[in-house]
Design brief:
single chain, four-stranded antiparallel β-sheet, two-stranded antiparallel sheet, 11% strand
């Protein structure tokens, strides 16, 4: 009986070893087959991207600095800009080479002069002229009745402020171009307190442009400003005389009597007074 059990156990062990051998052979065949398949068809294996690397890449992209366009020097208030003109620049911008600023302002026939030949002292600082302001307010009130709301957006400027403006324009456009539309410090009419840059409220896009002169408000100003003591200071086609491009917005206060005479003469202030 014991011998029979032993024989059966031996047979079972033999079968067990056979199955182990067969299973190992199958596993080996599968592994070898898989290796051969991968070598022949590598595209069947997809490599998932490393999420850590992706997150790092996105972070680096967000941290890249944004390229900003360099802009010209900023101005602290709206001031004169060059208009499109056909006239050629004046020699030395119309200024007298080597001229120094005077110690006293220049008056011709009682009229305070500030142009490229007759500068003002650096310390001349009268502020905005009260008579000119009152005249403007009366003109603005009458213009409103006619349907235009006027604004004097730039009047008196000190020597120091004009110096900042002019230097900014030179940095942006070059000295030759800047001299055609902006006064050097000491030579600006705005320093007299009698120059008013005027525009129409609600149409700020026309301020400091030649197009303002073609607007209804601009036309009204040219035709009526003398009644309140103002003249258009730098008219078209007079750059060789005034030294500046046409400025449809720049008006000078002279008083009603003189402004009317200059208006009726169709001359610039320089021509009317017989000065350069």
């Amino acid at each position: 009986m014991k011998r029979s059990i032993y024989v059966n156990k031996k047979k079972n062990d033999k079968k067990k070893y056979i199955w182990i051998g067969v299973s190992s052979a199958i596993v080996l065949i599968v592994i070898v087959g898989a290796i051969i398949l991968v070598k022949q068809y590598p595209q069947l294996i997809e490599t998932k991207p490393n999420t850590t690397d992706i997150a790092k890449e996105k972070t680096e992209q967000l941290e890249q600095p944004v390229q900003e366009e360099i802009e010209p020097p900023k101005q602290t208030e709206v001031t004169e800009e060059p208009a499109k003109q056909q006239e050629q620049p004046l020699e030395n911008g119309g200024y007298i080479e080597g001229q120094t600023l005077p110690t006293e302002p220049t008056y011709v026939d009682g009229v305070l002069i500030a142009n490229k030949k007759y500068p003002l002292p650096a310390d001349f600082a009268p502020g905005e002229n009260k008579e000119a302001r009152a005249a403007f307010e009366k003109m603005a009130a009458d213009a409103k009745t006619a349907g235009f709301e006027l604004n004097a957006f730039s009047t008196y400027r000190s020597y120091e402020y004009q110096e900042v403006l002019y230097n900014n324009y030179v940095s942006r456009d070059g000295k030759e171009n800047a001299d055609r539309y902006s006064a050097r410090p000491g030579y600006s009419e705005h320093q007299t307190g009698l120059a008013f840059d005027i525009g129409e409220k609600g149409k700020e896009d026309l301020w400091l442009t030649a197009e303002f002169g073609e607007s209804e408000a601009g036309k009204w100003l040219v035709e009526n400003a003398h009644k309140y003591g103002f003249i258009l200071r730098y008219p078209k086609g007079k750059e060789a005389i005034t030294g500046y491009m046409y400025e449809s917005w720049h008006f000078r206060y002279l008083g009603v009597e003189l402004a009317t005479k200059v208006k009726e003469s169709n001359l610039t202030l320089e021509e009317y007074l017989g000065i350069q």
